Amino acid sequence: MAEKKWVYLFSEIEKAEKYVGGDWENVRGLLGGKGANLDEMARIKLPVPPGFTVTTEACNAYSATKQFPEGMWDQMLAALKVVEKDAGKKFGDSANPLLVSCRSGAKFSMPGMMDTVLNIGLNDASAQGMVKLTNNERFVFDSYRRLIQMFGTVVLGLPDEAFEDVLDGFKKDKGYKADTDMTADDLKLLVEKFKVVVKKHYGKDFPQEPLEQLKLATEAVFKSWNGKRAVDYRRATNISDDLGTAVSIVTMVFGNMGWDSGTGVAFTRNPSTGERILYGDYLLNAQGEDVVAGIRNTEKIATLGDPLPEANKQFLEVVKTLELHYHDMQDLEFTVEHGRLWMLQCRNGKRTALAAVKIAVDMVGEGLISKEEAIKRVTTDNVDTLLHPQFTAETKAKAKKDGRFYASGVNASPGAAVGQVYFDADLTEKMHKEEGQDTIMVRPFTKPDDVHGMLAAKGILTSEGGATSHAAVVARQFGVPCVVGASSVVIDLDKRVMVWNGVTVKEGEWISVDGTTGEVYVGKIDLTVPSIEEQTDLLTLLNWADEIAGMQVWANSDYPKDARRARTYGAKGIGLCRTEHMFFEPARLPIVQRMILAKDDVTRKAALDELLPFQRSDFDGLFEAMDGQPVIIRLIDPPLHEFLPSEESLLEEVITMRVKGETKGLAEKENLLEAVKGMHESNPMMGLRGVRLSIAMPQIVEMQVRAIFEAASDCTKRGVVVHPEVMIPLTGHLNELKWIQPRLIRIAKEVMEEKKVQFTYKFGTMIEIPRAAVVAGELATLAEFFSFGTNDLTQMTFGYSRDDAERSFLGRYVEEGILPKNPFQTLDQGGVGKLMKMAVADGRKTRPSLEVGICGEHGGDPASVAFCYSIGNNYVSCSPFRVPVARLAAAQAALDPELAAARKEALKAYVKK
Length: 913
Ligand code: ADP
Ligand code: MG
Ligand code: MG
Known about the structure:
Blueprint: E1 7-9, H1 13-20, H2 24-43, E2 51-54, H3 56-65, H4 72-87, E3 90-91, E4 97-98, E5 100-106, E6 117-120, H5 124-134, H6 137-155, H7 160-174, H8 184-202, H9 210-224, H10 228-237, E7 245-251, E8 262-267, E9 279-284, H11 290-293, E10 299-300, H12 309-326, E11 330-337, E12 340-348, H13 353-365, H14 371-377, H15 380-387, H16 393-401, E13 405-408, E14 410-413, E15 416-422, H17 425-433, E16 439-443, H18 451-456, E17 459-462, H19 470-478, E18 482-484, E19 490-492, E20 497-500, E21 503-506, E22 510-514, E23 519-522, H20 536-549, E24 552-556, H21 560-568, E25 574-578, H22 580-583, H23 589-597, H24 601-625, E26 630-634, H25 647-660, H26 666-678, H27 690-696, H28 698-717, E27 723-728, H29 734-755, E28 762-767, H30 770-774, H31 776-779, E29 785-788, H32 790-798, H33 802-808, H34 810-815, H35 832-846, E30 851-854, H36 862-870, E31 875-878, H37 883-894, H38 897-906
Parallel strand pairs: 3-4, 15-16, 16-17, 17-18, 24-25, 24-31, 25-26, 26-27, 27-28, 28-29, 29-30
Antiparallel strand pairs: 1-2, 2-7, 5-6, 5-7, 8-9, 8-11, 9-10, 11-12, 13-23, 14-18, 15-22, 19-20, 20-21, 22-23
The structure holds adenosine-5'-diphosphate and magnesium ion (2 copies).
């Protein structure tokens, strides 16, 4: 059997490809990103110094046995011979020595691993040889002292200070300020001093034998894979422990050989804006990391041609070649030695969200990549980032420096907000509406009747609750930046202050909330606000996404304003309009309460008649905003007591009035209290709500359907094209639909006859109770559409009450790996998803034209969008702010062959109608 190959020369990339089966990702896995790209550059004839790479497999073997695997060292020695030949120098030779660097490189670029050691191979003898060769004593001894220092700290693990202290002391004695003040003799002396440091801390002499230097450095790279820094980094970024790191040994080229030499780093395009302009810096007469280290002022890459015209010309060619080759923006490291260009690294460059979109779109225009490739390259997080107001890293760093950091919690809804603090919803709304203030609503937690305050707020902060608490869900829905569960903040609602770590913020004072990171600052931090209309590249990309997706994205919008926003964000319909928010508005709530408390049908009817015009105008605005597109309106869903004051607060009021002897209005309050008590349910989530409420009190939904169809008729007459879809919530049994739906359809027809107009409409149901999913085939005999209410469906399938689960055990479940993710954020495909898949299939068996969507929060979560795509949804519906994200996610799903195949299968029975 042939010996296992642990070492690949830069010229042996074909062998590596063959070994891993041809796939480039696997080549990167074997040789590390750095090694693989060095090989690739060599293959396309770019100037790369000769070298070789020890594989990640060797690293893994080393990790297992704590010694080099058999044959590895011999293979390194053999490779070194080839490199010596190519470079025309000899490793360890005193007359014409080859020096090398030892570089670590895993499949994914990983800060946290061993730092590169340059100038390996230098010792007392070869230093002399180099002096003769270069006639530059200063350069040689500067290189030598750097080697001892790097080798000492990186390979031998000595503390940085051991060298820094000696260096600083030396400079001080001589009265020097900068390293460059040191003469050749100084550096010679320093080399001796550094040797003493090594001896003292390491107990042995600095290894003079070049091969020993190489061996120890290689071993140190292997060891660094399991070092604490590297392990921590992998934990944080989900990189697998068994990848291992490769080691690349590269012939040294010297940018510090004089003023016709230099070193630099560059991006082939601007990584922060995406502009197609070379971006980077260089330094003449410098080595390695000098450019990044910022010891000297660097020059802009655009001026490289002045001192080094030939090298610059060659470099511009390289830039072009590499972009054409990799079809992506590259991050480059190069060195010029005596006017000659050497490439030392290339990789796909990291970039901001803005740059990611611009580069992807530009590259399609340049013919470098396809639209599909552009869609795959931009991440949904990129899109999200582009649409939320932001603090910049600089401004936040400054605020931190100024001691304005306040507290941190769960980053519940991304984006940044600056405003004045108010501790209740009414005041938050009032100060916003009447005083025109930017407000931040701060509460221990929020409830449905806080929504008006949340809508008026620029940002929300709570001290309790998790990522799917009411505050978090509503905030995301409306795109309000929000931090929840900042548990170390103590809110005193009586004194109207909050305190954190001794810092008190009073009502009306300014704070800044970063919902992207979960941080809160005292005072104002500057904001940048993005608008989608101005982001033409993003719009272009999203239009391509729509062409590719084959599944639409709709929006959950309760108000015309949201609907209009949803449309600018690219929604193709409204998937959920929740009618109960409309009931909470101050002008309407008293009427709603009168309707609820009515003792007889006549009184109730009168109250409903009063509500009708309000509802009609709500729907009118919505239809108009969505002209030509479907609008799904959900009939009233929550239990009625949500529209009444709470039992506790009423009781308190009644007792206070009694104690104070106040009689005016007491009887009314007492009656109200009795009514509220009478409505008490021990588990309202599973009580009288949804379709059950409609059956118990059909007048409410009859009024709503009338309002919907009157508005739709009026709109039609005005030339607005309407497609109303009436959604019945919380159905669990076909007989519920049988009872309510025909009554509602009768009203719809009545209205159209009265108004003498015709338009298409649908009646359908939400699937949010497991039983509904199980009997979906039956429900589809009446329902013309299904919409998965995955918030409730998740609660009921798991049997978790969401708020309780969030508060008490879900976090631990995820930590312990009992659940892979919070199922309220990312759809549980194995359970809830299975029910959905079955419901779609059974429903379409009954009714091939069944329209299927999702309106739970999952509709804006990329992984859940992909799942909905695979089971054959016609659309997903999410918060207007998530629409662009969902559009991209849908297209990315369509480009995944497995998901696309699953969808094709799921859509077999479907007939468009
Ligand atoms: P990192 O992963 O931190 O970028 P590198 O291995 O790329 O580490 O090396 C650090 C610095 O040393 C870079 O500036 C690189 O260009 C430079 N460098 C590495 N090897 C050589 C070499 N053989 N000749 C000259 N410079 C080198
Ligand atoms: Mg580094
Ligand atoms: Mg590098």
